[in-house]
Amino acid sequence: MATSIEQSFVKQFQTEVHEAYQRLGSKLRPTVRSKTGVKGASTVFQKVGKGIAGTKARHGAVPVMNVDHTPVECFLADYYAGDWVDKLDELKINHDERQVTANAGAYALGRKTDDLIIAAMNGATREATGTAPGTTDDDGLTKAKILLAFEMLGAADVPDDGQRFAVVGWKQWSELLNIQEFANADYVGPDELPWKGTQAKRWLGTLWIPHSGLTRQGNLRFCYWYHRTAIGHAVGAEVQTDITWHGERAAWFVNNMMSQGATLIDPDGIVRLRCREA
C-alpha cells in the first residue's frame, strides 16, 4: 500500500479548497477593508480624520489641514478545520466526495472569517433606535428604522459612493420584502440584483445582504449598515491545506488553516439596527 499521495493530488486539493473559500466561504470579506500579507501577530489600520480647507493671502503659505491619523491595531489569530479520510474509503468514493471534503473545510473557515467581522461590528456604538413608532426595540426591521439609520449615516458624512453595505438576518430580509420600495421592481429593478436571486439587492445606494450568523441577544437581532472603510480585516495567511498520512489510523488527515483578524476602525461609519426577532 502506498503511504503518500501524489503531489499533483495535493496541489489539486489545495486549489479546490481555496476556490471554494473564495466562491462561497465568506459573504462579508468583500464588503470590508481588507489587508493581506500581514507579517506578525498584529497590524495597524489608519483612521484618517477630516481636513478643513481655508484661504491664503497672496504669496502667503498654504494653510495646513493637520489631518488627524489614529492608528487602530488589529490582532490576528490562527484557525484550523481538519478531517480524516480513510485510505480504503478512497476506493469507494469518487472525485465529487473529495470536493465535498474540500468544501466543508473551506466553508468552515469562511464562516469563521464572517464571525470575526461580525464580532468587530458588535463594537459599534451608534444605534438606529428611537421613540418614534417603528424605531423601538419592540419593532422589527421597519422602514422608519431604516430611514433613521440612513439619516445617521448622512449626518456623519459617511460617503455615499457605492461602498455602503447593510447586512441583515433572514427574518429581517423577509421584513424588507414587505417594504414596497425595496421589493417592487418599479423601485428596484433587475439591474440592482448584482448576484441574482435572493442573496443581495441594491437599495438606497447600499448593497443589502442577508446573513444567518449575525449576533442575537435575547429577542433582538443585531443588523448593521456600514461603509467599507469602517471595518478592517487582516490576513496573515490565506486558506492553506496540509495533507499527511497516519499509518496507525490508515488514514489521511486533511488540515485546512488560516490566520486572520478583524477590527472596528471607524465607529462613525457603522450603524446598528436592533430588530426584534421572536
How do the strands and helices of this protein lay out in sequence?
Elements: H1 7-25, E1 33-35, E2 42-48, E3 69-75, E4 77-86, H2 95-121, H3 143-155, E5 164-168, H4 170-176, H5 180-183, E6 201-203, E7 206-210, E8 216-217, E9 220-227, E10 231-246, E11 251-264, E12 270-276
Parallel strand pairs: 1-10, 5-7
Antiparallel strand pairs: 2-3, 4-11, 5-9, 6-7, 8-9, 9-12, 10-11
Helix pairs in contact: 1-2
Shape from CA axes? globular
**Biggest sheet descriptor:** 6 strands, mixed
| Strand portion | 25-35%
Q: Which regions have little confidence, pLDDT < 50, spanning 5+ residues?
A: none
In DSSP terms (H or I, runs of 4 or more residues), the helix count works out at: 5
Question: Over the alpha carbons, how many angstroms does the gyration radius reach?
Answer: 23 Å
Order of SSEs: HEEEEHHEHHEEEEEEE
| CATH second-level architecture of the largest domain | 2-Layer Sandwich
Fraction of residues in helix: 25-40%
